[in-house]
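Thread: "does anyone have the structure for this chain?"

Original post by V.I.:
We have the sequence but no experimental structure in hand. Need at least a predicted one for the grant figures.
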Amino acid sequence: MKTSLLPRIFGGGFFILLGVGAYVVFGGEMLRSQRCTATTTGELALSYTVNEKSRDGVVTSRSYDVNYSFDLDGRQYQGEETLATEPTDVEVTVRYNPENPEESELRAKNNIVFLLIGTGMLAIGVYVAFFERAAPELNLTTGRGVPPQPARPKSTADIIAAARAEAAASANRQIARESDEPRE
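Reply from O.Q.:
Generated one for you, tokens below.
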């Protein structure tokens, strides 16, 4: 028994979009990082911005937005980066793309974990959208899922047998009540 098409499309589509988004955001950073193969020495700007995230007045994380510059073939290039640790030295190693020095970074980006999560989201989305089946109904006596059974049309013999069984049960209840009543 398949689920209706609309929830499968929306549910699967949600996970597919998450997976593709992870590839676009984190995969793009990794590709740029792979192109930045050459290194040179650069300088950090003397000032930087500190970003703090706090919860209930306690700082939970801190990052530093820095600007840097480097000279290459008599031309100066600039870049900016967010670092997890506070810069301690003005001189830094800059990684840049030899074919396009405008592409540069201070540290290589390795977002393989996020790409793996994106792959998982993509796989879940494809499964939900195309392969998911409805969960079977739960059998309350065993706690196991049982496939729903189609209602079987009753034959005349089944109806007569059920009526006789009900009449016999009713008669037995009447006899039991009469035997329980006090006699005078």
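V.I.: this helps a lot. Helices lie at 5-35, 112-130, 156-180.
O.Q.: and The longest strand covers residues 58-72.
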